[in-house]
Specification:
Elements (H helix, E strand, L loop, with lengths): L2 H11 L5 H12 L14 E8 L7 E6 H14 L5 H9 L10 H13 L3 E8 L4 E7 L1
Antiparallel strand pairs: 1-2, 1-4, 3-4
Helix pairs in contact: 1-2, 2-3, 3-5
Length: about 140
């Protein structure tokens, strides 16, 4: 059994999470339903790169596995119910409504549709003041 699955089952046994939450966590760990793109290549990474405007190689190159992104969103949605009300109020003061995180099915659908579309550029931003370019992609 995977270490992550074992931890989820321990949390269930200790009463820290309920059966529904454990099921969500376990399904986020397994990730069975990845779809092949038409090119035969599964996008597996969310990448953020930062270049000096005229450079050939990026000075920052961050790769986050899509599966980790999905699992993090799901785990965050489950554990947001454990956040004390006073902490939720402080977060809300910053303009963040964490109650929106509860609908993880919509977030999961969004990520699935992005990865089904195949590799593509999400955003490209040029900062003329700092002479930098930022690119966010799914590959």
């Amino acid at each position: 059994m995977k270490e992550e699955s074992h931890k989820v089952l321990e949390m269930l046994e200790q009463g820290k999470i309920n059966a529904e939450q454990a099921g969500r966590l376990l399904s986020s760990i397994e990730e069975p339903g990845e779809v092949e793109t038409p090119l035969g290549k599964k996008p597996r990474w969310l990448k953020v790169k930062v270049w000096d405007k005229d450079a050939e190689k990026p000075k920052v190159n961050v790769k986050v596995p899509i599966a980790l992104l999905k699992a993090g969103i799901k785990i965050g949605a489950i554990f947001q119910s454990f956040i004390p009300d006073n902490a939720k109020d402080k977060i809300a003061e910053k303009g963040i409504d964490i109650s929106q995180i509860e609908n993880i099915e919509q977030l999961d659908e969004l990520i699935n549709s992005l990865t089904e579309s195949g590799p593509f550029v999400i955003a490209q931003v040029e900062d003329t003041d700092d002479n930098e370019r930022v690119e966010v992609t799914i590959e």
